[in-house]
Amino acid sequence: MNYEHIKTGLLIGLVGLSMILTWQLWTFQPNIELLDDTARYVPNEAMSEERKLTEIIRPEQIVIHQQGRHTMIPTNDERFDQLYQKLLKTNFVEGDMLAVGPFPKQVQNGGIELIFPTSIPVDIFLSLFQVDQEEFNLPLSTINRLYMYVDAQDEQVHMQMLSSKDTQVVEVETNFSVGDFERNFLRPFNEYVEVFQANNRSSTRELSEHIYIPLGPVTAERLSFTASPIPGTFFRQALFSDPDSVKHYRQSGSVESFTDGNRMINIRNNGLFMEYRNPIFSGTHERSSKHVVQSSYEFINGHGGWTDKYILSDWNSNDLRDEAEYRLQVNDLPVLSFQGQDHMVLQTSRSGNQTETYFRPLFDLDNQPIDAREEVKLPSGEDVLNRLKQLEFFHIERLQKVAVGYEMIMPNPSFVTVEPHWFFLYDNSWRKVTFDSNEGGGSNGLE
């Protein structure tokens, strides 16, 4: 009897369990997107947040001038960012809009020169300071250097703005605190890195664009990071107007492609880099009213593309195409080589109003490096310049920049090392300085 009761109880339990499971099955809502590998995408929150223009446009050097000597605030010195942030909060008063130079102005107590990686369109420059261009009209098209000093007559901080493109300089009065300027930035002159002027690249003797190089040896850190992949399928959602119509292909040579018949994304180097193409077939293109720097910034901001620290490094514009480039910064130094190639940039080009190409890395670095750090002592700036003068092809008139930057090595897809080296920009191409006379530059412009 008891045996029959046990069987009846088990049967009732199984029937109850069956009803519960049936109810869960009926009410279950599957995530269809995640069941289809070809439709999988990474939502926007997996990418970076939007960034302000002031985070993307920054000086690459801040040089202090004092009685014929020059020092430079290191980019990782907190005073570098402090000065720039204080400057961005400064108001301008129209001054000498027809100034003829010299630049930088020679004053007894010295001044501070800010050098940007590339020229800044004047409307974007004024927007950094939240100045209305209609109310404050500068007779310049671009600005690439600033010089701040205390004027002896009115005891105010004045600022010169130099435009290489226009071969012109204007001068304005600012409300930057004189005491702050002198006490916190001018007086620590001897605490900074001593530099020398490599040459004068100006087209006129009065408007000088010197290349400043550290006089003595330079110490920088070799760092390692873990790297996280950015799935290329994210850009299927971000860059195609109808993601459902996009086809997925695998080509030879480990190239993966997405296309809707017109636009195409090619993912190369085993998923490390992406190239987007949106061909424009019309013979005539209406030029955009927005500058390419503004439109490229909005384009990358629109899909959260600032996955690491990138800053505006170059742009150009002509009748056929407008281009802009943003370079990766690690530890406040530019990454100028990825295993021998200049790939660590976000590059966009535009034809008319439409983004035509977009190139970028498909990985980002963790916020903090792995504990293993190593200081690397590099040769002095004088040794670097002497080495360059020994190169057969070298003409100092074509030298554009000399800088300490990083070469990135990726032994596997989840681990990278950045190693500091001297680099020089020559004929618009970055090259690594080597001290072995038997080594020559490669076709890609990097040794």
From TrEMBL:
Keyword Membrane in annotation: yes
InterPro entries, alphabetized: YycH, YycH/YycI_2
Keywords assigned: Membrane, Transmembrane, Transmembrane helix
Regulatory protein YycH domain: residues covered: 4-440
Annotated TM spans: 9-26
Keyword Repeat: no
Name recorded for this polypeptide: Regulatory protein YycH of two-component signal transduction system YycFG
Annotated organism of origin: Halalkalibacter nanhaiisediminis
